[in-house]
Amino acid sequence: MNSKLTSLRAFKTLIMSCDSVIRTRYIKSVAPSFFEVFFAYQKVSPVREDDLTVLKEILSIQRLLLSNCLPNTHIHMIRLIVPVLISVLGSAGHAHCLAEITYLTQTYPAEVRTMFGNQPHLKQQLETAIRSSAAKAQAQATPSRLSSSNVISAAPKIALKMDFSNFK
User: Fold this and answer.
1) Does residue 18 come out as left (phi exceeding 0), alpha (psi in the -120 to 50 range) or beta?
2) Residue closest to 101 by CA, chosen among 124, 78, 75
3) Which of 42, 73, 110, 111 could, after both became Cys, cross-link 84 (CB 3.0–4.6 A)?
4) How many CB atoms lie within 10 A of CB 2?
5) What angle do CA 144, 150, 156 make, to 5 degrees?
């Protein structure tokens, strides 16, 4: 198993199971290294399939960290998290990052609104990524519809010898 993944899972286990005092000290000591790994995804574009498991684990830890931090620090965490999520959109982690942005928007609407208000370029990048993914999904769906209609029209037809139009 990947050493990053093992370390992240150990970090997650400690966050979930420790006493709050120990958890807070541990988070304060490990968080800089954790965010360093997380910020590396902002520089790597596009995210590869083999990094996807690590990214999923990081995103689940992000949720835990957000739920454990004080409400007045949510905006600071969101300002750290969202730019990285937006930079990963369009790669292998697109669906997971989009789901995480949706979760953050629904769970912390005021904080996300404030962040997008202060950084309109991030909002534009997010909208562009959503539009391009919708266009890709529509382009992929269109050929499949055509092929399914061809299958229906290619079905064999049986010519009936008797006319059943007046049958009641």
Assistant:
1) beta
2) 78
3) 42
4) 12
5) 140
